[in-house]
Amino acid sequence: MAKRMVLGAVFGVVVLVGATLASAADMAICYNCPPQWADWASQLKAMKDTLGLSVPPDNKNSGQALAALIAEKAKPVADVVYLGGIVADAAKDAGVLAPYTPKNWEKIPADLKDADGYWFTIHSGTLGLFVNTAALGGKPTPQSWQDLLKPDYKGMVGYLDPTSAAVGQQGVMAINLALGGTYENLEPGLRFFKQLLKNDPIVPKQTSYARVISGEIPILLDYDFNAYRGQFTDKAPVVFVIPKEGTLTFPYVMGLVNGGPNPASGRKVLDFVLSDQSQAMWGNAFLRPVFSDKLSAEAKAKFLPDADYTRAKAVNLKRLAKAQQQIIDRYKAEAN
Hints:
Blueprint: H1 2-25, E1 30-31, H2 40-51, H3 62-71, E2 80-84, H4 88-93, E3 97-98, E4 120-132, E5 157-158, H5 166-178, H6 187-196, H7 209-213, E6 219-223, H8 224-233, E7 238-241, E8 247-257, H9 263-273, H10 276-284, E9 288-289, H11 297-300, H12 306-309, E10 312-314, H13 317-334
Parallel strand pairs: 1-2, 5-6, 8-10
Antiparallel strand pairs: 2-8, 3-8, 4-6, 4-7, 4-8, 4-9
Helix pairs in contact: 5-6, 5-13
């Protein structure tokens, strides 16, 4: 009887360990994969349907994801991470990423990936004005960065907090360059944000798509893919504007977490996001896939004309990354 009890207990432990290993093999933890951003909801569902992997949504932004990875460095929780390109090298330098070159990695342009495989671009977006025209109270849709300083738009303009969100920092640089600054000279951009304080801007720390759709934030500095999603998928009264002074196009990247608990699952996720299926899905979600031939004609037809996109220039990731801390520090000191 005692022998049977011991054997039963051992068997129970084996079953429990086996179930734990099986569940780990069927799961990957992704930091900064929010379902309302870039249609991650569809990607996570496709990973479940195609790979059999459960990837829970995560609402961190890039800065918060990097901070969490650094804090957890001794015992990582995540397997993969999605980041704005501005923090890609910072994550590599912090030692929280491990090199991995997924399938199709060699097809990615050299300036859109780390030469040693620590990170790679999966898609890009163009920063501009995501505008709920119905929430403007009859005022004209702004067409430039300078329009946002007009008293007509007091209390209507929002942007993500540059002290924590990559898109907020990118917004500072996009406006700075459009108004005559450089990657090293931030004066025009900081002056703009200081002036914008007079208009009582709304400065959330997290993705604010729903707040624009509802009209709570009538004008948000955000990406084209969110505006097109609102316009064509959610049928909201929203439009995207590329400001007449110009703007920037930014890549979004992914990487394998160094020492993550489910590395095999993490590698499957990274292979998937460069697959033909996933790349076409990014295009259908109004992002420009890193493999441009995967953007269908039907999807492209919903974008603004190419002539408008000539005002959007590709960002220099290396120079932007060098300016990142200065953007944070000076915004906090001068325009917060």
